[in-house]
Automatic annotation (TrEMBL):
<dbReference type="Pfam" id="PF00583">
    <property type="entry name" value="Acetyltransf_1"/>
</dbReference>
<protein>
    <submittedName>
        <fullName>Ribosomal protein S18 acetylase RimI-like enzyme</fullName>
    </submittedName>
</protein>
<feature type="domain" description="N-acetyltransferase">
    <location>
        <begin position="165"/>
        <end position="333"/>
    </location>
</feature>
<keyword id="KW-0012">Acyltransferase</keyword>
<dbReference type="InterPro" id="IPR016181">
    <property type="entry name" value="Acyl_CoA_acyltransferase"/>
</dbReference>
<keyword id="KW-0808">Transferase</keyword>
<dbReference type="InterPro" id="IPR051556">
    <property type="entry name" value="N-term/lysine_N-AcTrnsfr"/>
</dbReference>
<dbReference type="InterPro" id="IPR000182">
    <property type="entry name" value="GNAT_dom"/>
</dbReference>
Length: 333
């Protein structure tokens, strides 16, 4: 049975309890769950919940049709259930998710798809369920956060970008919507910058924009571009070489909102010119100006680029660690 809007608080509770031992927070983001179940994000998702004899939801399985050949899945199971029952419920959920992933693939006309599941490092129970369901641990991610001080929002708090580099927000029309040229530039820069990254795949422009707009924290004025001149073309117009997509993250224990960096990328030919640093400075300053106290991001712990060194240098620290688990399935017929 699929959940409805009235189930969001219980689903948020299940998700928060599963995460709390690793994130340190038991706060449920009900707003995000409502969006997944009955908001814009529900349009590309499938859900099922399992209830006990009293009608209480004990498990929730969900699948997101992310792109052709990619389905992001997850389960939350009530850990107060008997161990054997938890295992049975988890096995059923992963079998259902494999069927849904196959249906996504058929609708897209592809012969196979990748099921992409997440787990917290140290959650050996969930990791065991994933392994039993045929998933392999393929990547580790550091979830990093940086405190923001009020003075960092003042003019001159950070160095100006390198010579020839300009960082600015994506331009907006008077109605608050982004200018198409800038929006396309963000997409093109990120698609190009991530081509050689782990598990890279093509996501069409419309899918990219729609997926990010589904986030309750989506804000167009949290999108940034970096431009640089081209040394081989003296006097030429600066071109887009870096992009950052940010969003508003929910309140922490003190009630303070935060900023989250969903994506940051720089073209290979611009690396070494301070493009990423300039974008990060801009976002920190913006967060401070908004009265926020933290900026979060995710970094690939296995990446050969050494991006974590830059983040650590600028004040980010690892709050907790997550993992990606994958399983490839083939669609029959």
């Amino acid at each position: 049975m699929a959940p409805d809007l009235a189930d969001a608080p219980r689903l948020g509770e299940l998700r928060a309890r599963q995460a709390a031992p690793y994130t340190g927070s038991a706060d449920a983001d009900v707003r995000a769950v409502e969006n997944e179940v009955a908001g814009q994000a529900s349009w590309t998702r499938r859900h099922v919940v399992l209830r006990d004899a009293d009608g209480v939801i004990r498990a929730w399985a969900h699948a997101h049709d992310r792109a052709a050949g990619r389905a992001v899945i997850g389960i939350e199971v009530d850990r107060t259930l008997a161990t054997g029952l938890q295992e049975q419920v988890a096995a059923w959920c992963y079998a259902w998710l494999a069927e849904v992933g196959g249906e996504f693939a058929q609708l897209r006309g592809t012969g196979s798809t990748q099921l992409d599941a997440g787990a917290f490092a140290g959650d050996d129970v969930l990791r065991g369920w994933l392994s039993a369901a045929g998933f392999d641990h393929v990547r580790t991610w550091w979830q990093m956060t940086r405190p923001v001080e009020p003075h960092e929002g003042e003019p001159g708090a950070f160095p100006v970008p390198h010579e020839g580099v300009v960082v600015r927000r994506v331009a907006q029309h008077d109605n608050g919507m982004p200018v198409a040229e800038d929006l396309n530039a963000v997409y093109q820069v990120l698609e190009t910058a991530f081509t050689d990254h782990f598990n890279s795949y093509q996501e069409y422009f419309t899918e990219f924009v729609q997926r990010l707009r589904e986030d309750p924290g989506h804000r167009w004025d949290h999108w940034w571009l970096a431009f640089a001149d081209v040394p081989s073309v003296p006097g030429g117009e600066p071109v887009p070489v870096g992009a950052l997509v940010g969003s508003e993250s929910g309140p922490d224990a003190s009630g303070s909102m935060g900023t989250y960096i969903d994506y940051i990328g720089a073209l290979a030919e611009a690396r070494g010119r301070g493009v990423a640093t300039g974008l990060l400075y801009a976002v920190i300053a913006d967060a401070a100006a908004r009265g926020r106290r933290r900026v979060g991001l995710e970094v690939d712990a296995d990446s050969p680029t050494g991006a974590e060194a830059l983040y650590s240098k600028l004040g980010w620290r690892t709050a907790y660690v997550t993992e990606s688990w994958h399983r490839d399935i083939t669609v029959e017929g």
